[in-house]
Amino acid sequence: MNGTLGPLALYAAALEARRQAQLERRVRVVDSPQSSQLIVNGAKRLAFCSNDYLGLADAPELIAAAQRAVQRWGVGAAASHLISGHMTPHESLERRLAEFVRLPAALIFSTGYMANVGVISALADRASEIFADRLNHASLNDGAILSRARLRRYRHKDLAQLEQWLADSRTTRKLIVTDTVFSMDGDIADVHALHALAERYDALLMLDDAHGFGVLGPQGRGALVQAALESPRVIYMATFGKALGVTGAFVAADAVIIDTVRQLARSYVYSTAMPPGPAATIEASIDLAEHADARREKLAASIARLRAGLKLKRWRLAASHTAIQPVIVGDSESALAAAARLDAEGIWVPAIRPPTVPQGTARLRISLSAAHTPDDVDRLIDALQRAEQA
Ligand SMILES: *Cc1c(COP(=O)(O)O)cnc(C)c1O
């Protein structure tokens, strides 16, 4: 059939080329709730893949909150926020979020991807320049592309290059955009230094705290509260699908910014609101996370245990102190082979390959969670050391 249909033959050839380059990605079906132990193909897997850093995705309190919310509010929002989809659970969640991260106002989105493309394209236009860390999440770059602004991607955490570019810029519409915790490396941006540059060059600073919210800062309030920065130039974004264990995202900032985003962000205006059940469940998850110091301590203990115990020869454990602990392996084939060896031992660690990470830095992306026990971490250490020797 492909032989007669030109366009399909082109796609088929491109897929085959991906396959040959060891870049094809596959979906695996998880037949259990998300936790540190998963059922895949009928077999148990000890999993180090998820962003469920506090182990809340299957928390009984949240399952109960979700059931109550569905009983009370039904399953769908039925319309976009600006038509009739904005319900009491959404309104209540937005107020709680603004208070939780200590900013004047907040706005929720159905996903973090939608938040980033919506916020950036609402705040920047052809006359703007966007300065973005080269290792930022793809959704931030996609937002910049949609905005039609000039996108300049500085070397990872190279604030000297950023400052040079800010100094050279002619526009009054400057937006600096960065992940706080970098999703494939686990290292952390210098929020204070970035904010100082934003002040000096009269720019806005957008922080994507997808991997910090719920984990960093007092009561898990995130990287901005941790930095104790109070500034009308900061736009704070974080997601609920990671440490909070649910789904969705929000942006919080000065009311002028939030009102602008509400009017202009197309992924907000032209999309059905998140269902009310998840909105209520997210609020319950914030209540849990606020009092989850024990979970955060357990996570910190697992991070310390892995870093102290893992002895590698050829591979390299990245310099990260967050739940994201990448082992840099090198080429895609080796990373895949390493993941396959772990899999054979019942341990699931994803191999992350280009284009998600730079060429030559394919890696095993270990993510730890409060649900892991010390024994789980020790099993991982042993298996990794064996896989490296194989
Ligand atoms: C996961 C992630 C997103 C996207 O959030 P979703 O809710 O999964 O769409 C955005 N930014 C960063 C840094 C992320 O890690």
Descriptive overview:
The chain is of the alpha/beta class. The chain is 44% helix and 17% strand. The protein is built from 15 helices and 14 strands. Strands 3-9-8-7-6-4-5 form a seven-stranded mixed β-sheet, with helices on both faces. A four-stranded antiparallel β-sheet has the order 10-11-14-13. Strand 1 and strand 2 form a beta hairpin. Helix 13 packs parallel to helix 15. The longest helix has 17 residues. The relative contact order is 0.16. The mean pLDDT is 96. The site of pyridoxal-5'-phosphate (PLP) has 14 residues, from helix 5.
What's the layout of helices and strands?
Elements: H1 6-20, E1 37-40, E2 43-47, H2 60-73, H3 81-85, H4 88-101, E3 105-109, H5 112-123, E4 129-133, H6 138-147, E5 150-154, H7 159-168, E6 174-179, H8 191-200, E7 204-208, H9 223-227, E8 234-239, E9 249-253, H10 255-264, H11 266-269, H12 276-290, H13 293-309, E10 316-317, E11 324-330, H14 332-344, E12 347-348, E13 351-352, E14 362-367, H15 374-389
Parallel strand pairs: 2-12, 4-5, 4-6, 6-7, 7-8
Antiparallel strand pairs: 1-2, 3-9, 8-9, 10-11, 11-14, 13-14
The structure holds pyridoxal-5'-phosphate.
